Amino acid sequence: MGTILVTGAYGQVGRELIPELERKYGTENVIISDVIPAPPDLSRFRSSRIDVSNGESIIHAIDEFHVDSIFHLAAILSANGEKNPQKAFQINLLGTYNVLEAGLKKKLSKIMIPSTIGVFGKETPRRDVPVDTVTKPRTMYGVTKVATEILGSYYFYRFGLDVRGLRFPGLISYSAMPGGGTTDYSVEMFHYAIADKKYTCFLREDTMLPMMYMPDAINAFLQLYEADISKLTHHTDYNISAFSFTPKDLENAIQKRIPEFAVEYAPDFRQSIADSWPETIDHSEASKDWGFSFKYDLEKMVDDMITNLRKLKRVEIKNQA
Q1: Does position 316 have pLDDT exceeding 60, yes or no?
Q2: Which domains does the chain carry?
Q3: Which residue among 10, 141, 174, 213 is the active-site one?
Q4: Exposed end of the chain (fewer CB within 10 Å): N or C?
């Protein structure tokens, strides 16, 4: 196993992926990078400041650290992408192109690129969405991720570069606050439940979306990374999901543990994004090809989130205005 470079390493997925990569492959084999300095708790890792919109910075890091594979996480998420679609295009699509070109030039063994349910649109079936379906997203985030799926597949079939990816649903984690996605309410609700006992949700209470607890998402990503390439019938667009729920479902589940918790609903621009996404996802292709499964259902996830947030003895609250 060679050296692994993680771009966008300090985001929600990266903060939980990095310790798992360390556990499996060793601290010395994990290189972390982002456009900001490494946080103190990750100081044990070698790091590089990489702006993926600058292809030369990627090449330099590959050469400096003898990189063999990349987990490319750098991205602008759905809600933030609508605030600045030009930046989302630059980072999400052109940045990915730079990573793929660097991987091709340096003959990397593997590039992992997460995609998203944001690739779907209003024309996509609402329930049990298969891998091969209509993808007409209504956000720049979704547009760039559809293009990334196709681009990664092109680099595999045209150049033989081993590019792999899966479509994450909404992800829930206690390790870091979310980074500007449409399903962020699901994480914020826990923080406010513990610290403030009330929360204003930016989606309607009946908005059902596919979701997953972060430990299951990280495990799935690593399963795909280690899968036998001969078993893969897809490369960049595997569906995965664990459960679907509405904000009201989550509110009720939290209230079982924190009875005084209250939620108000004030949908904003993110509601139209959520309305373009399906309610449930068919992940049978991932299960068949590389053994995808999940451990946490809604109740287990809620228990674990509350337990771990209380252990941390810190809850981050941001201005909802």
Answers
A1: no
A2: 3-169+214-239 (3.40.50.720), 170-212+242-276+296-312 (3.90.25)
A3: 141
A4: C
